[in-house]
Amino acid sequence: MKRLLFLLLLAATLATVALAQETPGSSARMVVTVEAKRSGSVPVINQEDVMVFEGRDRDKVTGWVPLQGENAGLELFVLIDDAAASSLGSQLDDLRKFIAVQPASTKLGIAYMQNGTAQVLLNLSADHAQAAKALRLPLSNAGVSASPYFSLSDLIKRWPQSSARREILMISDGIDRYWDGGPGNPNVDNAIEDAQRAGVIVFAIYTPGEGHFGHNYWRINWGQNYLSQVADETGGESYAVTFMGAPVSFRPYLDDLTQRLGRQYLLTFLAKPQKKSGMQRVKVMTEVPNAEMVSADRVFVPASE
């Protein structure tokens, strides 16, 4: 009898362990860009090449879909700082050409940062010619600028959910007039979390701002740091070549952005089950030579049922 009870207890324990091991995680998703670590072509990445880690724990990858062809849907907002210096006017033709070469699967919107909000001049549209026409010179008035990160959050929060990937090209000096500079800017941190929670990737191009802050080296330095932080932590890229002057041309940046948009994948994986929905820190990696995975460093994970 004791032996029978022992065997029954052992069987129950093993069944419990097996059930715990088979318990699915919470399904999470994010857009990942593949780039080459060095010069040369970008390697092809297959699902079995992708690794996702939460700390030291590796999550199961359940999907890896190239965002091309029938899956190429993209919603892209161009968000311009209305406090940018008038030198931005020389870049509008490059922006129009960038808009013109986007595939038909891309919907474009145009918005300007004003007083901490995003003033939308054109909602997302498949009419690229209309999007190009919606571009205008910035007001070049430092008085209309608050924090560009307020405007970024405002645009993200008003953006309806969609099955398409969602991305923003942010053009600004990055200077936050509501923060003294230095690390730990809560406005930047909040904008990053809003973007990560919504699954929005942010790319940034530095352009000088109007007014005293626009030519203050210390402010410019931190403005570019903030832009870089936002782009890096949401899975995008930040472009700047000098701390003080305006870029000669946006074209190299926009060409690089176009290429990156063509090398994106939708990654789905099983994250650790959570009692409450929230943000989880993740790292996406591959061992394929000369390949690097660029993604947000946190992802929204729904509560497990």
Write the layout of secondary structure elements.
Blueprint: H1 2-22, E1 26-36, E2 50-54, E3 57-66, E4 74-81, H2 92-100, E5 106-114, E6 117-125, H3 128-134, H4 148-157, E7 165-172, H5 186-198, E8 200-206, H6 217-234, E9 238-239, H7 251-261, E10 264-271, E11 278-281, E12 283-286, E13 291-294, E14 298-301
Parallel strand pairs: 4-5, 4-7, 7-8, 8-9
Antiparallel strand pairs: 1-10, 1-13, 2-3, 2-12, 3-10, 5-6, 11-14
Describe the structure.
The protein is of the alpha/beta class and 305 residues long. It has 2 domains: 82 residues, no CATH class; 190 residues, Rossmann fold, CATH 3.40.50.410. It contains 7 helices and 14 strands. The strands form 3 sheets. It has a 6-stranded antiparallel sheet with strand order 12-2-3-10-1-13, with no helix packed on it. The protein is globular, with a radius of gyration of 22 Å.
